[in-house]
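Thread: Newbie trying to understand structure tokens

Hi all, I'm a second-year student working on a class project, and my supervisor (Dr. K.) asked me to get a predicted structure for one chain before our next meeting. I've only ever worked with sequences, so writing a 3D structure as a token string is new to me. If someone could post the tokens and maybe explain what I'm looking at, I'd be very grateful. Here's the chain:
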Amino acid sequence: MNNPIDIDPFARFRTVTRARIGLGRAGDSLPIRAVLDFQLAHARARDAVHGHVDFAAMAARIGETSPVIRLKSRATDRSIYLARPDLGRRVDPLSLTQVEKGDWDVVFVIADGLSAAAVEAHAEIVLAACLRRLGDLRVAPVVLGEQARVAFGDEAGEALGARIVVVLIGERPGLSVPDSLGAYLTFGPKVGRRDSERNCISNIHADGLSHETAADKITWLIREALRLGLTGVDLKEDMGGATALPVAP
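---
Reply by user tm_fold:
Sure, no problem. This is what the structure looks like when written as tokens:
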């Protein structure tokens, strides 16, 4: 029996990458299997971008263990959100009327971003894993942000009086992973923070960074940010073999 690698020299590489390599050809075109696979991946990416997170159901689930605040951005619907990124970065003023400033170490914001599928699949699990590791900190009510981008968390965190904001957000989907979650950490959140003042943990999904590993990295960065009073290019992740424990049972 022939070894598949002898027949397809790219087979060995496909075991270590999701990239589309060595697709072959059928005459002057791609094989029908490769064409259909591409079309399916493209459809999943579009669905992720245009999908909607069921924030009502999410609020009910999270609310069983943690207080929740639901906020909206200034983008009134998905089409405006996609066409006007600036509106997704600011909180709707009417939403802010329900926010009371406190004295919090950290606030978590779950934002739909550009992949509803990522938020539905991973955000609550990562949030719960982080909260188990942060029992000694003052954690603000969880914010659920509709039609929200990363900078949305700056205004929400400032309104709540949190020292650091962590935005769990759906990342822009690609043609290999439509449900990748990202985590953006910003010390001293306030309107006008630059991207260079944030730290990012990305590629949280089934074939990428696991929920528990992501939570370790996020909580390690939170503690270091609080200790040093900064995030961004001056805060380098250097966990080594350490974990951000203790983890509550």
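A couple of things are worth pointing out once you decode it. The chain has one domain: 50-228. The beta strands are 68-72, 104-111, 142-146, 162-170, 181-187, 198-204. Feel free to ask follow-ups in this thread.
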